[in-house]
Design brief:
With 539 residues, the protein is an alpha/beta fold. It is 34% helix and 23% strand. The longest helix has 18 residues.
């Protein structure tokens, strides 16, 4: 790299860090405590909690249904719980499963495990008992930390060593099980924890929409280069209020939560998403940021206009969005209602951030995934590993600063010339914007024609009487496969299958018109809002 390029990159990085508030003047005593935190814990996730206490002290790190918790309190509680975990037999290198919703205990156990050098395995709150048992056995988790509401599932899964996180005293079903509160009280005082010999690993499970979820090792803290590149494209700011509705057990929610801790933001948490409650939290706390997945915006827009009008959303300036594709014209409809606030990030647990669509991108092309951040390269390749012609569809491969260290079973994604496959296919328009056409394994071949469900779903979703839709391939004796659409219609809509087929036929080629259309009350979704296509294919 030429010196001038290096200086330009350094200047851009400095500008992004100053704009976000990461770089700002600090008192000498705070700088000393920050340096001590990094020196003691190293650059990993454990240091994030100690640095937060040193830099932000009594500022609220989070607010949940039990009120605020400061950065200093969160650091101290995670220390105490870590000491208590040692007493229960958890040590560096052990794996602890976490089955928690978004609340303080999720972060207390996360900090405690990081400080012990233990692995945190985050389970999907939508799992059934057999999935809990199977994943814990596969990942060799020795303890399950769970909310009280999941006690019956833990019983069925026959989990032997358990700790309770969130409990409602009036409805607790686990009076004999130790709680994180108990560990924190008993070990509030004790020796300072030593830096562990190894850094604990964070294990995020893939969505499992088309097969069993895999465990993926992810970085507990953002890669510096990747973080700076995203700060150039995404308007995160220090010491703001961030309503985190996306589940923190998933990569998207977890990444925003760690970003919030690093920036000194106050996370406002809700255990279960409710669209009206989300608006109430934004209005009550004058939150600037709302972290969500696309289906949450859809649910907010389904609220009657008079309900939405009750809440003052004028503080909201930034809605970072990811987790699944934006259906139809959802982005523009939401921005028409709440202002140009959506920044849609396309990526995955394995490859990290691939591209960012700004409000301007989404206004110009509502279906776009945007453009890659600085330092990330995207290639579209055919099945032979060759670059496809400009404007053509190809498999999306990415090379960026995130180094995916593989799945817990030792497997990895397909890699060609240092570029990793996302599992998706897409195309790039003449303005350099990336579009994700669908999953590689979701393409439907019907009568020799290739159809990606998303294109059909987007058209159906734009019908004024449709809330959302999903399209899958079902066996057909003549064509091999045929398209079947599952459609959620608006209440009281006079919509039938023939009318909807004519609507699709007016907008797409005839071979893309679903032969079968089934109206349903809702689409099956996992905890991150992704449609469970494997369930639809079995219907």
């Amino acid at each position: 790299m030429r010196p001038v390029d290096h200086l330009t990159g350094a200047a851009r990085a400095t500008k992004a860090l100053l704009r976000s508030g990461v770089l700002r003047p600090e008192r000498p005593d705070r700088l000393w405590h920050l340096a001590q935190a990094v020196r003691h814990w190293g650059p990993g996730l454990a240091a994030v909690f100690a640095m937060g206490a040193a830099r932000y002290g009594s500022r609220p790190a989070l607010v949940d249904e039990r009120g605020p918790m400061s950065f200093a309190e969160l650091d101290a509680r995670s220390d105490a719980i870590a000491r208590g975990l040692v007493e229960t037999g958890v040590h560096a290198g052990d794996t602890v499963a976490v089955l928690c919703r978004n609340h303080r205990y999720f972060f207390e156990i996360t900090g405690a495990l990081a400080k012990l050098g233990a692995n945190a395995l985050y389970l999907n709150t939508g799992f059934a008992a057999p999935q809990i048992a199977a994943v814990m056995q596969r990942e060799r988790a020795i303890v399950l930390v769970h909310d009280d509401e999941f006690g019956a599932l833990a019983d069925i899964a026959k989990v032997e060593m358990r700790l309770l996180a969130w409990t409602d005293a009036s409805s607790s079903t686990e009076p004999a099980t130790r709680t994180l509160d108990e560990l924190a009280r008993r070990h509030a005082e004790g020796p300072r924890l030593d830096r562990p010999a190894r850094e604990g690993r964070v294990i995020i499970l893939t969505s499992g929409t088309t097969g069993p979820p895999k465990g993926a090792f992810v970085a507990g803290t953002p890669h510096p280069g990747a973080a700076i590149a995203l700060l150039e494209r995404l308007p995160y700011r220090a010491q703001e209020k961030m309503v985190v509705a996306a589940p923190c057990f998933h990569a998207w929610g977890f990444a925003n939560a760690t970003t919030s801790l690093l920036l000194g933001d106050t996370m406002v948490l809700e255990r279960q998403f409710d669209p009206q409650q989300a608006l109430a939290l934004i209005a009550r706390h004058r939150a600037e940021v709302f972290v969500a997945v696309p289906v949450m915006l859809l649910r907010i827009l389904e609220l009657p206009p008079e309900v939405r009008a009750r809440y003052d959303m004028s503080s909201l300036r930034f809605v970072p969005l990811s987790g699944s594709a934006l259906p139809g014209d959802l982005a523009t409809r939401f921005m028409d209602a709440f202002g140009d606030v959506i920044y849609n990030l396309y990526g995955s647990t394995e490859v990290g951030s691939v591209s960012v669509a700004t409000p301007a991108d989404l206004r110009a092309a509502p279906a776009t995934a945007g453009r890659p951040p600085r330092g990330t390269l995207v290639r579209l390749l055919d099945n032979a590993g060759r670059d496809v012609p400009s404007g053509s569809n190809g498999r999306i491969f990415v090379r960026g600063p995130l180094a995916f260290s593989g799945y817990t079973d030792g497997g990895s994604k397909s890699v060609i010339d240092g570029f990793m496959h996302t599992g998706d296919t897409g195309h790039i328009d003449r303005d350099g914007r990336l579009f994700v056409d669908g999953r590689d394994d979701e393409m439907i071949v019907s009568g020799g024609e290739n159809v990606f469900p998303r294109e059909v779903e987007d058209v159906i979703a734009r019908h004024p009487d449709v809330v959302e839709a999903a399209v899958v391939g079902v066996p057909d004796p003549e064509f091999g496969s045929r398209l079947k659409a599952f459609v959620v219609a608006r209440p009281a809509a006079a919509l039938d299958a023939d009318t909807l087929r004519e609507y699709v036929r007016a907008n797409l080629a005839r071979f893309k018109v679903p032969r079968d259309i089934e109206f349903v009350d809702e689409l099956p979704r996992n905890g991150t809002g992704k449609v469970m296509r494997n369930e639809l294919e079995r219907r």
